[in-house]
Amino acid sequence: MDVTGLINTREGWVDRRIFWDQAIYEQELERVFARAWLFVAHESELPRPGDFLTTYMGQDSVIVARHTDGRIRVFTNSCTHRGNRICFADGGNARQFTCNYHGWSFGTDGALMGLHEEAHYAGWIDKSHWGLQNARVETYKGLVFACFDADAPSLEDYLGDYRWYLDIVLDQTDEGTEFIGGCVRNDFQANWKFGVENFTGDSLHASWTHDSGAKAMTYGKPVPDFMPVEQDSFHANANGHGWEGGTDGLGTLGIMSLRRPVIMAYYQQKRAQMARRLGELRATRLFGSVVSASVFPNFSYLPGIGTMRVWHPKGPRRIELRAWTIVNRDMPDEVRNAMRDACMETFSPSGVFEMDDGENWENATRANEGVVTRRQRLHYGLRVGTSRRDDPDLPGNISRPMYSDVNQLAFYQRWMDFMTGQSWRDIPRVR
Ligand code: FES
Ligand code: FE
Q1: Distance 87 CA to ligand 1 centre (A)
Q2: Domains of the chain (ranges plus CATH)?
Q3: Which atom of ligand 1 is nearest to the CA of 103?
Q4: What average pLDDT is seen over the chain?
Q5: Is the distance from CB of 145 to CB of 40 less than 8 angstroms?
Q6: Which residues form the Rieske domain (predicted)?
Q7: Which residues lie at CB < 5 A from ion ligand 2?
Q8: Is 79 touching ligand 1 by the criterion CB < 6 Å?
Q9: Less crowded by CB within 10 Å, the N or C end of the chain?
């Protein structure tokens, strides 16, 4: 399907069809999710050989497992005999995965191991050809990504300049990060792109959508009290990945710390070590006033709040959200418990902000489908064209202030690159 007329990133508008059309959705699975690097796990979820979890890459069910050689493998969760789903558990530890139907078994690297009654197959199968499809797997400072496209660039190149921003969360201390408290799921009857575009650069909604929830949580303080000062705020994007925040202000860390001062006390104590690793600008000014961020295509996080999340597409009108709390490994129990509780209080199925957001995205998905409604484009023109790659301090494309559609347009430009490109040869390496 030719999608070239559906988005105009120079004029700043989007066709509503991209939020509900089945054919566009099928093309997204083929051209975005089967080509991009996708977040699948944090290394801390799989500490020992045999540890595994199941998740999705697009709508493909996959097993993420630490093999006996210590490496993490990612492979399709569908038997090569009749296609039955092999593993139904969310996670655990296993020596192999055995299919319910006829008993074929596969190793923690996806290789076909046994056929139950080997005698039946003597001379009829070359087992080395019938293993599960392995994805490429690369990690970035604890985060595990996988990709099904052999022509994709390395994960480091895919992230590009954006690594500088990711490091603000992943590289604060010598000991690194981990996920705690398991995975929390939530379901939205909404298009997956609404979750991503909201986290990649929609600070505009926060003061309006979250005003009452924020006041309830913060003893009456309105959201703008926690936002970066407007003249110091900015949008950064690189290769379709986005970061919004400022160089001054309280940000999401301020909201977290108000009710749980141990969090801010921890960061004050860590400031010198963070500055040594990240420099003063990133360690204090940027981290202290960040709002939200996303990695293309469907991985988002809130650096101060500690939520990391994947918007799994389940059809054009449904998202399965999986979310975790990320903490520094060196955090004392009191601080990590505070981080987890604050994360659940804000961004979980019962979190005050998650509910606010989900309602908007569900209604937008439904309303965009109206047969007359759909004829009118959507406005994405706030500060369109103001993104520039020449800031002396901040890598990537920068636009000021952060109240703009600039990062959302960068996300949709990348989406367009993937949707129109016949292969990775047509997709710009740096955008
Ligand atoms: Fe898996 Fe037959 S479908 S063993
Ligand atoms: Fe929100």
Answers
A1: 12
A2: 7-32+161-424 (3.90.380.10), 38-139 (2.102.10.10)
A3: 4
A4: 95
A5: yes
A6: 38-146
A7: 357
A8: yes
A9: N
